[in-house]
Amino acid sequence: MTLKSEPVIVNVGPQHPSTHGVMRLRVAFDGELVTDAEMIIGYLHRGSEKLAEERTFTQVVTLTDRMDYVAAMTNNQAYILAVEKLAGIEPTPRGVWLRMISAELQRIASHLIAIGFLMQDLGAMGTPLMYTMREREDIMDMFELMCGARITNSYHRPSGVFQDAPPELWPRLEAFLVEMPGRIDEYEQLISGNEIILSRMRGIGIISPEDMINASITGPMLRAGGVDWDIRHQQPYEYYDRVEFDRPIMDESDNYARYLVRVYEMRESLKILRQCIDQIEPGPARDPEVPFVIRPPKGDAYVPIEGPKGELGFYLVSDGGISPYRCKVRPPSLLNLTLLREMVIGLPMAAMIVTFGTVDINMGEVDR
Amino acid sequence: MGTNFLDNSFFRNIYCNLSKSDDIRCSGGGWLGDGILPAGFEWLAFLITAVVMAMVLINLVLGSVLIFIWAERRLLGRFQSRSGPNRWGPYGTLTPVADAIKTMFKEDIVPTAADRWVFNAAPIVMMVPATMVLAVIPWGTGTFLADLNIGILFIIAITSLSTFAIVMAGWGSQNRYAMFGAMRAVAMLISYEIPMALSLLGVLMLAGSLSLVSVVNAQDVPFILVQPLGFLVFFIASIAEINRAPFDVAEAESELGAGYHSDYSGMKFGLFLNAEFMATILSAAVIVAVFLSGGRGWSFIPSQGWFIIKMIPVLFFIVWTRAAWPRMRIDQILTFAWKGLIILAFINVAVSAILSFVWPDPTMRELWFMVAINFGVLIVSVMAVGAWFGPQGASAPNMSHGDALPRPRPAGQPSGGDS
Amino acid sequence: MIGLGLLNGLIVTMKAAIRGPVTVQYPDRRVGLLGAARELGMSPFQFLVKRPKDAVKAAAGFATVEDKIAQGPRFRGQDFNWYEDRCTGCASCAKFCPLGIIEIVTSPSDTLKSQGEVYNIDVFDIDIGRCMFCGICVEVCPYDALHMGSGFELGTYERKDLVISVDALRTKKNTPSTWFRPQLEETAYNPHSGESRPWTEVGRHEQPTDEELNERWVDER
Amino acid sequence: MNVAMSGSELADAIREIDSEAVTDQSDDAVWITAESWPDVAASLRDSEALSFEMLSLLTTVDYIDHFEVIYHLLSLSKNRTGVVKIRCGEGRIDPTVPTAINVWRGADLQEREAYDLMGVKFEGHPNMKRLMLWEGFEGHPLRKDYLR
What we know:
Number of strands of chain D: 8
CATH architecture of the domain at 3-94 in chain D: 2-Layer Sandwich
Structural class of chain C: alpha+beta
Structural class of chain D: alpha/beta
CATH architecture of the largest domain in chain C: 2-Layer Sandwich
Number of domains of chain C: 2
Radius of gyration of chain D: 15 Å
Order of helices and strands of chain D: EHEEHEEEEHE
Helix content of chain D: 10-25%
Number of strands of chain C: 7
Number of helices of chain C: 9
Distance between the termini of chain C: 88 Å
Strand content of chain D: 25-35%
Oligomer: heterotetramer
Strand content of chain C: 15-25%
Number of helices of chain D: 3
Distance between the termini of chain D: 44 Å
Largest interface: A-B, 65 and 55 residues
CATH topology of the domain at 3-94 in chain D: Beta Polymerase, domain 2
Largest sheet of chain D: 6 strands, mixed
CATH class of the domain at 3-94 in chain D: Alpha Beta
Strand order of the largest sheet of chain C: 4-5-7
Helix content of chain C: 25-40%
Largest sheet of chain C: 3 strands, antiparallel
């Protein structure tokens, strides 16, 4: 005998504690199990791409901050790289190193947020979140030293960064590099071996790597599926070919693998930071000849970079004017959600929330 | 008659002041002399004393709820590298009072679609078991409302009542999240009553009585030492019974918002919160009475003081686990109860039965033998059960250094449109 | 072994509890008796004897110590700093503001010798309510007249109070942020010290004298 | 190191699949006809020599007199990128392109977004609904003639 129950349709979101912003999932439940899920987004749509068409190339930097607001530096970087390719601007070496330093710091900050909020989704009463926020605060303080803002940085400029890092930054960064590995070990001690977390995250939310590649899923999610794809390594931009780092790869492709890959990536980012500090050379942080108002020649440019959440890129079209004719973002958060429905069907509600958390989306970037 | 509340000097005085009882403990009357009520009115004296006791105990527990809320928030803050509430009053001690005042003055919203009667009755029903359990707990020598000879059974029976309240809240709210929370809570509470009751069987075999007062009196060695496995199972089960982390799936704020009390506001929500914290304190009290030898201890501290001192580490541990561990999933919680705890409880029952058959009336020396054997059983059985269905250990990612390109894979088949 | 991971979690949280809080309690921090004594540089016993009233207050948990997190000198804050003496009214800031929240109205100045080169600023409204503190107005200012401020607690009760008027800019004490002003950083200036900078010391270049202005004026004609 | 396939290289490869597909080519991109796109896309993904497994980015640009749909393709196994462009909607009339969702699942949300904001229809998409904006929103905001 089988019992048939009526499906219950529940709106998870847009005001739900675990939707990482304002996302809405219309989920059909059979008891506790998800039988269908529909993603409804757009609650944070601000039309950044349209706004970019009315601003000069440098002014658009401020818009990119607000797309993925927990990884503003990498957004700046992706945009500036596209502008430089479009306009044929050669960046100054010190500017590039500073961009790399800020981007790697931002990657750590973003992964800290991802891990903290994932643990929040698992119901950990905010303890891991508080710990990760504590370390993120260090990074935010360093950003404040570098560019005077903590979240909406607007630090990068065509040909470098707007201002050289202050001398106070370097001892801060040094202390951070010394302290951070121990902190990461602490998270691992708190989280990685915990039986509750293991039983809740292992073997859940599995997607095959073939499906992920086919669905344009990139970043830590793809690497957790056993695909060694890191744009920093395969298609080095900036000076990533001058630093050495490993890519953590896991074959399980489940929620736990996605979490662990992020933890190990933070360690690799620390390695990169150390090498950046060793290799940074004195000189101007930007080319003073590059004007504020750039007029790139007609054409288009797309530069993908490895953002914290996946392949992040800006596709810019110029008509020779002072503002982009078309500015299109490749949002890793949005594309990583492509297979969400397939991932969550058949899972219990709690596992659905966790699976959603391991995708590590940011609604500012999903909706733009 | 064994013990009754007349062992407590405070209540004895009240009673003896009122009645002309010929009880031997009342010889010489109370502080004020002989009883003021005429003979034949002993029942009235008894009633008044009982009401006074009930008032004192209930208000003390309610007051301790405030202290516990404050302590929990401070402790959680400390565990999370924060400082916790520290603005209202010295060290933030008035924060729960401020919260209570705020809760009272909040607007009381009843959702339009709600089943009004059920919705309004749920918080009251929720308070019932919490206050009723209070009756049988021996807070110290002679400090109890009733020495029921079925005390433990009474506790297990009464705590099940909170299931009704949770279902009423979930159903009455007409909210799907609340319903989810209620359904989860029912499944969990019913499952965990079984290991909870089973884990007490060993204690009953040793104590030979269901009365909590007798259980306390039987503990020459605290039963946590003689019954470590029973304690473990009972502790886990009682955390689950009071819906606290890591078993707080009924509220599960990251999944269900606030679970079964999503739609409650104002004082109704306050009642839910109060009942939960009262349940926490009372379950700590039950643990102390059953496993930590109640109010027994060296006589330089009164027995009530010992009872409270012993409750503190239990409550501290409950808060500590809340800070450290994430929530379990509902199906895993049920698996854990049925596959893990019940088996452990049965092992405990079997071992206790054998031991009490071998040593029907254990001497101190034999008790310590039992302690050693039971701890061995604890370690072996927990490891065996853990190996049976516990999660496997963590694995580390492989680091790829070389220039290897990703393995070529066939492109996947599209799995149809979204939604 | 099962339970080891759970135990590890307990150990980590206990370590954090022993290390103590890392959060900053803005604007002041409640300290106990020991903390208050440490702030005053006395031993708790000394404190009890010398200042019993304060000691009782501290023991009851009412003693407070000011607590502020150190901000970077580049912090892009709320109150803009504007040097009228440097401003020519070119309105670059208004032009390049991505949100268009700066309104400038100028009129030719009669008072200055170089009439026509420096303008009177009649209106210089910055609508802080819509500002996103990107600092582009500061970046494009060719005369280093506009600077970011370093304040962050200028909450108001009405929206219209969020508009900074030219009079407010004229009268406020100028503690410019060093954002996009390397010349200020070179002098190791920290705006959070409360020290203000006169207009002569904040520029990338010296203000030309009247003679120089006259010459240039003639030359460019 | 990344090898961006030059336009001529890619054009040759596409001509092998469908001789009439290529209409134009530049240094880094190839323009093909909309009709040939489903076959070309499937071959681009499946052929051993190209194996573009991932659709990295789908963009639409409004060029006033026509629309252009731009596909940035990525081959993980070969570490190569290629750009394929399709002109559509000449004279701003009814821009339509066959969907690529059956070849690359990643086109799903990107095509919905392109339809939502630019108004390019993707024929054969099973769920051609607005993504960012609400149902009933009029117009397509990223078009150059969209007025607020």
